[in-house]
Specification:
heterodimer, A: alpha+beta, 5-stranded mixed sheet, 5 strands, globular, B: alpha/beta, Monooxygenase, Leucine-rich repeat, LRR (right-handed beta-alpha superhelix), 23 strands, 34% helix, F-box domain-containing protein (chain B)
Chain lengths: 226, 585
């Protein structure tokens, strides 16, 4: 019997998905770098991931985990939108809904200069003191040798804890009552004191000042934040 | 006796021959009525016509793994005395939104037949079926003996349907509503149980979001003296839980509500006392929002715990460790990956009797690695839990060596489901494909029935599976394989294969058609985002008339491309309730 030649694999119908975004490479998830050879969404992306892996064998010469970050910023492209394949990973939506509702209290914590983020569950802490102690512990291994961390809010030493609230304004941690803070905090950034001086909670996100230090945060594309 | 047998053997009288060569029907039916396993019953029915008949008259429970493999009329014709029906509908990938909305699997056509043929139906257990409020109401008023309703992963109904069940089913013993796509319109359904109603033994509404009236619940629990399973939802606080437990110390399975209320020390003591009075609890779940400081109240109830479901409780490793010390009898454990490798080390140390472990991801779509388990945790569990035979493990990194170690420690796996969440991820230490990992699994675990593979895999994995996995019944594959050859190996090699589900793999028509004879011995085949074309599917449908070959098209895809294909054996012919997006070839 005659079989059709395999048609060029079309893009799967997945919502909000450019196939190159699911291009698979040997790097930390989320830090997806667009390879210059990928042309458009209609490439044979179903086989694309095999090619990509081969391509990046050269990219990541050392294959140990810790080296991923430095090795794989190959092409220096801006990070693409957060990619999501329909139905993957295979977690039931009802389970995901129930757990996500709880994990909304998980907020990402960025420290200026740190290569990766951490997540903390604000629900675990009963107040600011506990939270700041936990943050200090989290980043101790990174900062140990560089002696960056000073968590004293009042004295405002090397690092200042700030957070982004529901209105997308950047605030100083500690201004509002704890319960209100948990409600409104979307993410935390431990900011270098020198830059904290720019921070004006009344300024909208559109101000040029706010924009400049947002860039300096090396923050990924906003869509990547939950 | 000997002379009698001799006489019968030599006798020319054929009637006498027949009479003496088989048991009287009543005896046979009596004996067969003790058989519960539907697989055993299927075997029995194949022996001879007498046995077939005796079996069909004595069967009271029927299990239908694919609702479209048979029609309700055919079932009713064969089995006249059914009291309990279990039905499964949609392909499993519908749990992950891969099956179109209105695909089918509606229970109503079955209920309409049952009301005539099985008016004394007592039990209905549905998985991945569609059931409307109208159907629930119809069910509640049409079957006066109805006792037990279990809905898992179903959709199409709202809490109004539950209200109808509560209102009309006077003899209800079980209401088990799990993980469904339910339209939650409030908790008033619970108030529909009449005050005179006392027969409830199982109540599970853990996955419903809305508040229920606590007074109503408390009165219900206190008057249903036979209640043994109670799984409440998050709206129930710790204080309320204590009151429920005080009414029902006989519980064997408990699903708590929210576990994070601020308790006074007195309340804390009361809760501890309530738990210590529950001497029969063997299954514990819920623990939504858990605050670790309240976990010690649970300890008194953990002595006989065999199943602990913490998959909705975001615990840290240290907190889990402290809890596990109190659960020496644990056989089954479900956790979130917030426990990290540290928590899994504690599992290995504290749970020597563990048989099943499931580790779910708290943040499957997350980008950075904050909370997770790795190959180290996997190894740690296998070191301490040598009886492990069921694992479901979500992670972002794995190595071939780790999996080889795990199966060397635990060679008795029957269910091995490893999900490396990044599609196509190789062994992160060697950059090699994960072929050898799954090769080790199938070579070592000869009893393997269910396998889910992931990570970067070439055809070699499937060669291994085809060659070694002789007891494999269910295989799930995603983002794997290099060519048609891979799938062919599986189809040609696994004699007991029943369910094969494949997504995003480079398998095409040649692979599909290599399984022609195979599919009739299987329940079903699912292939989506592979390289199948309509013509290939048509060829399959043409060659195998006793298979239904259904193709689901997606908008905007290539004309000839078969985006999603579902193939299953059936004696009921092509189904007539398929929506326009589903083509039956």
């Amino acid at each position: 019997m005659s079989l059709d030649t395999v048609a060029e694999s079309p893009v799967s119908d997945v919502t909000s998905l450019n196939f190159e975004d699911t291009e698979l490479t040997l790097r930390l998830p989320g830090r997806q770098v667009r390879s210059p050879t990928v042309t458009g969404a209609k490439c044979c992306s179903k086989r694309g991931f095999m090619d990509t892996v081969d391509r990046n064998h050269g990219c990541s010469s050392t294959s140990t985990y810790g080296n991923f970050v430095s090795d794989c910023h190959c092409a220096g492209q801006p990070p693409p939108a957060k990619a999501q394949v329909v139905g993957w990973p295979p977690v039931r939506s009802s389970r995901q809904k129930a757990v996500t509702a709880r994990s909304c209290k998980y907020v990402k914590v960025a420290v200026d200069g740190a290569p990766y983020l951490r997540k903390v569950n604000l629900e675990e802490y009963v107040g600011y003191q506990e939270l700041l102690e936990a943050l200090e512990k989290l980043f101790t291994s990174f900062t140990k040798n560089r002696n960056y961390m000073e968590m004293d809010l009042v004295k405002g030493m090397d690092y200042v804890p700030t957070y982004e609230d529901k209105d997308r304004d950047w605030m100083l941690v500690g201004d509002v009552p704890w319960a209100m803070f948990i409600e409104s905090c979307k993410r935390i950034r431990l900011m270098k004191s020198s830059e904290a001086a720019i921070l004006d909670p009344k300024t909208s996100a559109k101000s040029s000042k706010t924009n400049s230090w947002q860039e300096s945060m090396h923050v990924q594309n906003d869509r990547s934040w939950c | 006796m000997d002379s009698e047998w001799k006489r019968f053997r030599d006798s020319p009288n054929s009637e006498e021959l027949t009479r003496r060569s088989s048991f009287p029907d009543e005896v046979l039916e009596r004996v067969l009525s003790l058989l519960n396993s539907h697989k055993d019953r299927s075997s029995v029915s194949l022996v001879c016509k007498d046995w077939y008949n005796a079996e069909r008259w004595s069967r009271t429970h029927v299990f239908i793994g694919n609702c479209y493999s048979v029609s309700p009329e055919i079932v009713a014709r064969r089995f006249p005395n059914i009291r309990s029906v279990t039905l499964k509908g949609k392909p499993r990938f519908s749990d992950f939104n891969l099956v179109p909305e209105n695909w089918g699997a509606d229970i109503h056509a079955w209920l309409v037949v049952f009301v005539v043929k099985y008016p004394f139906l007592e039990e209905l257990r549905l998985k991945r079926m569609v059931i409307s409020d109208e159907s629930l109401e119809f069910l509640s008023v049409s079957f006066p003996n109805f006792k037990s309703l279990s809905l898992l992963s179903c959709d199409g109904f709202s809490t109004n349907g539950l209200a109808a069940i509560a209102t009309h089913c006077k003899n209800l013993t079980e209401l088990d509503i799990q993980e469904n796509g339910i339209d939650d319109r409030g908790g008033s359904w619970l108030s529909c149980f009449p005050e005179s109603f006392t027969s409830l033994e199982v109540l599970n509404f853990a996955n419903l979001a809305s508040d229920v009236n606590f007074d109503v619940l408390e009165r219900l629990v206190s008057r249903c003296k036979s209640l043994r399973v109670l799984k409440v939802n998050q709206s129930i606080s710790l204080e309320q839980l204590q009151r429920l437990l005080a009414h029902a110390p006989q519980l064997t399975e408990l699903g708590t509500g929210s576990f994070s209320q601020q308790l006074t020390s007195h309340q804390d003591e009361e809760l501890k006392t309530a738990f210590s009075n529950c001497k029969n609890i063997h299954t514990l779940s819920g623990l939504w929002d858990v605050k670790a400081i309240y976990l010690p109240t649970l300890y008194p109830a953990c002595a006989n715990l065999t199943f602990l479901n913490l998959s909705y409780a975001a615990l840290q490793g240290g907190e889990l460790a402290k809890l596990l010390v109190h659960c020496p009898q644990l056989r089954r454990l479900w956790v979130l990956d917030t426990v990290e490798d540290k928590g899994l080390e504690a599992v290995g140390l504290n749970c020597p009797l563990l048989e099943e472990l499931r580790v779910f991801p708290i943040d499957p779509y997350g980008e950075e690695i904050a909370h997770e388990v790795t190959e180290a945790g996997f190894i740690a569990v296998s070191n301490g839990c040598r009886r492990l035979h069921y694992v479901l493990y979500f992670c972002r990194q794995m190595t071939n060596a780790a999996v080889e170690t795990v199966v060397r420690n635990c060679p008795n796996f029957t269910h091995f489901r490893l999900c490396i969440m990044i599609p196509g991820r190789p062994d992160y230490t060697t950059n090699e494909p994960m072929d050898e990992a799954f090769g080790a699994v199938v070579k070592t675990c000869t009893k393997l029935q269910r396998l889910s593979v992931s990570g970067l895999l070439t055809d070699l994995t499937f060669e291994y599976i085809g060659k070694y996995a002789k007891n494999l019944e269910t295989l799930s594959v995603a983002f794997a394989g290099s060519s048609d050859w891979g799938m062919q190996c599986v189809l040609e090699g696994c004699p007991k294969l029943r369910k094969l589900e494949i997504r995003d793999c480079p398998f095409g028509n040649k692979a599909l058609l290599s399984g022609l004879e195979k599919y009739e011995s299987m329940r079903s085949l699912w292939m989506s985002a592979c390289n199948l074309t309509l013509n290939g599917c048509r060829a399959l449908a043409r060659e195998m008339p006793r298979l239904n070959v259904e193709v689901m098209k997606e908008d905007g895809s290539d004309e000839s491309h078969a985006d999603k294909v579902y193939v299953y054996r059936t004696v009921a012919g092509p189904r007539r309730d398929a929506p326009p997006s589903v083509l039956t070839l």
